[in-house]
Structure formats: structure tokens, C-alpha cells
Amino acid sequence: MTENPPKFLWNEMNRLEIERAQKAGYVVIIPVGSIEQHGPHLPVDTDIHSSLEIAKRAALKRGDVLVCPPVWFGYSPHHMGFHGTLTIRLETFLDLLKDICDSLYHHGFKKILILNGHGGNRALINLVVNDFMRTHRTKILAASYWDLAADEIRAIRKSEPGGMGHACELETSVQLYLRPNLVDTSQISKETWTPKSRFGISYGIKDLLDSGSVTIGFDFAESTSKGIMGDPTVASVDTGEKIVAAVVDRLVDLLEEYKQL
Ligand SMILES: [Zn+2]
């Protein structure tokens, strides 16, 4: 008889298994993302698929982590100018995430990591972490997956600064590696920008790994013609594999440090 692989997906477990995991001090990862346009070549679930997949791989490596059912929807009003985007209001996003964290806490899980796959959620997940400290005196964590291994991604990337933003070298490479059948390579094209001023405020951000010094409201349909920010033409399966491996390794290390806290 072959042994079943260890379970780590919350939704596939029964309550006794979840209780055992809680008593054993498991960390819970909540993958969050968005359903939004990703140019003409990537599926609209790119952000949540990437963060969920990275969470699963880290959980499998560790054996002391549960992966919460993912938060599919994110804060994406700036993508509504293109078809496919389903956004929720920032209050809805905050309430939803706070309610999930409260439920985990209620069942005794005190170590929670929010793993984000969508830039537009960044400010909001940070708020949830800070507010959880205020309400529960408990330290939960939040991170966007690319930030976890930013130094390694800088070394792996082929594009110049500006090549990683949205539906870019990073996201296209990761999806080419994880789900090549869902990437329409015939639609890939480069859409980068040169900031028109010293602060780059013509578009708000310069690069996913260099967010710039100011925040300004922007709309993808106004600022881009195809909904792309960056250079997906240099994306590759190899780059995607290296990025996923680097992020998963870093996440595994982060979970260890968090457990020791
Ligand atoms: Zn994305």
C-alpha cells in the first residue's frame, strides 16, 4: 500500500485534520490575488494562480504549513478599462481578509502569512497586518511573492528596468513555466514607458522591483494600449522556473524564521 502524500490544502481536509495541524503549530498561508486583465496573452487569474502555486510548493517542502482557500478577487479598479477584470471595493477586500484572519485566529492559528500576487493589493494587506496587531496583539505577516526574492529576480531578469510591471517579463515567464497552454504567445508584445519627469509620475511606477518615490492614480486603459506594462517578449520558461524556485526557497526560509518568532 502506498502512503498518501501529506495534506496541506485546507479545503481538502476534515476538521480533525485541521485541529491536529493547529495543535502542532502549523502556519497558515492565505494566497491573495486578483481576477484582472493581463494583456492579450495571459489568463485573468494570473495573479492568484501564481501566488497559490508558490504557496502550495512551499507547503509541500515544509510539511508544517496549511494553505487556506485563496482570495481570488482583489482591488483592481485601475484594470476595469479592459475586459475580464472583476474588482472588489477596498472596504470589501479589507473586511474579507480581516474576517478570514479572525476565523483562523478563532480556531487557534496564531501564525498567518498573507501571500500576495497582485500589486494593487499591497497597501491593503499591509493595513490588515497592522490592524491585526492592534485588535489581537498578534504578529501576522504579509508579502508580495516577487518582493521575497527581489535580489535574485534582479540577477535572473533579462529586461531593463521598466520590463517588469504587469503582464511583463516576470508574470509571463512564471505562467509560461506553470501553465504554458494558457499563454497565447502570438499576442506577446513589449509595452514599456519612459517616465516623462524626474519622479516618473507619468505612469506612477517604474518597475515592479522599483516602485518609485511617489504614488499617483492611474488607469491601465489610459496609460497603455494593450494592458501590458513591461517586456514580456524576453520572457521564457527557464526564467519562470528560476523565479519560482527562488521565491519558493525564500518563502520556505521565511516560514522557518516566522515559526521561531
Ligand atoms: Zn498580475
Written description of the protein model:
The protein has 261 residues and is α/β, with parallel strands linked by helices. The chain has one domain: Creatininase (Rossmann fold), CATH 3.40.50. It has 9 helices and 6 strands, in the order αβαβαβαβααβααβα. Helix 2 packs across helix 9, helix 3 packs across helix 4 and helix 7 packs across helix 9. The termini are far apart. The model has no long low-confidence stretch (mean pLDDT 93). Bound molecules: zinc ion (ZN). The site of zinc ion has 6 residues, from helix 2.
SSE string, helices as H and strands as E: HEHEHEHEHHEHHEH
* Secondary structure tally: strands: 6
Which cofactors or ions or other ligands sit in this model? zinc ion
Structural class: alpha/beta
In percent, how much strand structure appears in the residues? Answer: 5-15%
- Terminus-to-terminus distance: 39 Å
**Spatial order of the strands in the main sheet?**
2-1-3-4
Q: Uncertain regions: pLDDT < 50 for 5+ in a row?
A: none
Largest sheet descriptor: 4 strands, parallel
